């Protein structure tokens, strides 16, 4: 059992958190804040030019921008040419777009 408020886990059978009195839930639920944080990724580029992706990554890395390549594994199957998304956290969106705009992704 789990208390969403205290982020504490309790053994099965306990229904009320001994710490705060809140009803415990079955398992850890992701709080709204964490969901928002998780979704704060912004796609700054979508490309099928797979050969440009490592270049884009190194540019972002050089600026210490945390980035994610959605569909990176697809690059091993270039014949499918499925668009790959380059994502960054919202705070870095503007800088990332600026850095990548000359790449012609
Ligand atoms: Zn609690």
Automatic annotation (TrEMBL):
Matching InterPro entries: DUF2007, N-reg_PII-like_a/b
The top of its lineage is: Bacteria, Bacillati, Bacillota, Clostridia, Eubacteriales
Recorded hits in Gene3D superfamilies, A to Z, give: UreE, C-terminal domain
Can you name this protein?
Methionyl-tRNA synthetase
Q: Where is the DUF2007 domain?
A: 42-103
What SUPFAM superfamilies is this protein classified in? GlnB-like (SSF54913)
**Organism domain of life:** Bacteria
């Amino acid at each position: 059992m789990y208390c969403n408020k205290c982020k504490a886990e309790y053994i099965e059978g306990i229904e009320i958190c001994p710490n705060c009195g809140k009803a415990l839930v079955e398992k850890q639920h992701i709080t709204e804040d964490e969901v928002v944080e998780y979704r704060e990724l912004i796609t700054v580029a979508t490309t099928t030019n797979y050969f440009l992706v490592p270049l884009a990554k190194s540019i972002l890395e050089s600026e210490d921008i945390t980035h994610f390549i959605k569909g990176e594994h697809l690059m091993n199957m270039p014949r499918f040419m499925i668009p790959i998304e380059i994502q960054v956290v919202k705070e870095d969106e503007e800088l990332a777009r600026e850095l990548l705009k000359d790449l012609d992704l």
